[in-house]
Amino acid sequence: MRVRIIFTLKNKGASVPFHHQYLLAQMVKGMLVKGGNEKYSNFSYYNFSALKGQTKISRSGLHFYSNKVTLVFSSPDKAFNDYFLSQLFEFPKVEIGNLILTPEHVEKECVPDFSEVTKFICISPLVLLNPTYQDDSNKKFISPDEDLFSDLLYDSLMNRMEKYGKFSSEEISSFYKFQLVPDKDYIRRIKEQQKKFARIYPVYDQDVKYEVRGYTLPFQLYADPKVQEFVFTSGLGVFTSKGFGMIDLANINPVQRTEVYEVFKLSQSH
Hints:
Blueprint: E1 2-9, E2 15-16, H1 21-35, H2 38-41, E3 47-48, E4 55-58, E5 61-64, E6 68-74, H3 78-88, E7 94-96, E8 99-109, E9 117-122, E10 126-127, H4 147-164, H5 169-174, E11 178-182, H6 184-192, E12 198-205, E13 208-215, E14 219-223, H7 225-234, E15 247-249, E16 258-260, H8 262-268
Antiparallel strand pairs: 1-6, 1-8, 2-5, 3-6, 4-5, 7-8, 8-16, 9-14, 9-15, 10-13, 11-14, 12-13
């Protein structure tokens, strides 16, 4: 289930680093530890976007000037989603970087009926490889046109789906059809404009700082509809529970895809 958490920004003009996934990951983990539910203390099948709002860029990062700031949060486990939301809304405010945010309400995204071909965009970078301490090989650029790019994503995805425990071994074996095809026109335009779709990002794992290469690009995914839905609700690639690999549907009006999350709204009123 995917939801959009809408916050009120208390201090317009405040900033976060350009890439602030690690700050959001710390916030989420803090909420889960505070909740004290051992079932979810090490749960990792969730994903989230960067903060969204009206921003301006400076050397110090992204400055937010909108009244509202949005965070997309998602998990294939609805009970986990509700648990996280219940912990978050116990706080009158949360601080992310220099932002002071008050959680206001939640909107639920309508999950589409997936087919075997879906066009996605990245709303946070895709990371292909788990880093190793004092080893920079994970920062090597791998072209999205190479089979290795798609193969690495497939391997990490099947590993996560198997460990998730909701798919039988027969289902996992049936998910062998998988191919990510990058939008070549997009990549060509980015190169012509001398911009980048692959950058190095910081990530913290067990208190160790790593640097990883992340890719942000539109692509078509050829896979079983169950696989399509899993990546839509839990992300693609590695470090999905740290805010990497969140994807969204391409060419879809985001405003028409949401509804007020009444179940959570009702639970808050009691």
